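Internal tracking record. Fields below are filled automatically when a chain is submitted to the structure queue. Please do not edit lines marked as system-generated. If the sequence contains nonstandard residues, flag them in the REMARKS field before resubmitting.
Queue: standard
Priority: normal
Entity type: single polypeptide chain
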Amino acid sequence: MFIEHRNVLPRGTFLVFSQVRLPWKTHDRRSDTADYNFGRFDDEGHLSCFGGAELKQAHECMQGLPNPQVLINNEDIRYAFTRASIQAQDQVKSAIRNGALPCKCEIPWIVAVGPYFVIEIFSPTSDAELNTRSHKPNEDSGDEDILSMISNIKSNAKFMPLPGSLYRVGTVKAAKAFHQYLTNGILLYDNNDR
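SYSTEM-GENERATED OUTPUT FOLLOWS
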C-alpha cells in the first residue's frame, strides 16, 4: 500500500522509513519505534516526519475479509485498536520530543490491525501529556492524572469506540483515504514549530 502511493505522488515527496527508533529523551536507552514513519530529510539531514503507522497482527474474525462495518462493534477488534492506538500515541510524542514532528498541530497516524486501518488524529499535547509515556510508563513518567486516564482507557479498551473510520486495505475507499492522508500530511513539512 505504501509503495504504490509513493509511485503515484511526485518523486521525493516522501520516503517510507521502517522501524525508526525515536528516543524518549536525548541519549536515552528508552525509545518508541513506529512500524513505519513517513517523511524526508531536511537540509541539515534531520528526519522530518508527517506521520507514521502502528501495525498489529490480524484477528481470526478478519478471515474472509469481512466488510469493515461488520467489525466496528467487535470487542476484540476495539481492544486491539485501542491498545495499538496507545502505542501510536507514544510514537507521536517521541517524534515531537525529537523534533521530527511539529508540536502544536494535529498529527495523523495510521493504526492498523491486520488488513484494516483507521487514521487517528492526535491533538496537540500539553507538557504533562508529552512527558507521560502511555504504553510503558515509568514511575517518573509524567502527570499522575494522565497516567490514571490512560489506565482507565486500557482497562476499558474493548468498549472504546474506534478513533476513526475503519478501512480495509485493497478497497477503493481505503486507497482514497490513504492518498488523502499522504497529501494532507505533506503539508506538515511547512510547519516549523518543531
